[in-house]
Design brief:
Largest sheet: 4 strands, antiparallel
Number of strands: 15
Radius of gyration: 16 Å
Structural class: mainly beta
Strand content: over 45%
Strand order of the largest sheet: 1-2-3-4
Number of helices: 0
Helix content: under 10%
Amino acid sequence: PPCVDEKRKIVAGASFDGNIYILEAETGKHLASIKTDNICYTTPLIVENRLFCGSGDRHMYVVDLDKMELEKRIEFRARIYCSPRLINGHVVFGTTGGWLVELDPKTLITKANAPLPDAITNAVSASPDGKILYVPTYMNEIYAMQRMPYKPGKKKKAA
């Protein structure tokens, strides 16, 4: 299904033809098409001025909605069929390689990841406080994972 941005009055959808389409909600006027290298099987997510959409080409696509163009293509080494969700300020999604990923929507840096024994192809959910993530896998198992606070490591001084 597409996502709707009521503020910008746009609708965005991903397609099996490998494109992410952005349209005016009221008129259906085509605003942008972002080409990927494989099918798109996710519902896009809009966070502020960015759209996030996974692709079968193993990338998360980040679209700048102010410019209506591709801002960044981030490699995750496995297909992304899991629709991204905004949970406690992070873009959370899974890969078919079994990785759960938390991406900072402002810096586009991975803030956390965790391996699971199976592909993650459906959207992740969270407890109301966001401390527990519920991750469904392709083999119909659901993992409840407690989120740990992000603590950046100390940088080592160069010798």
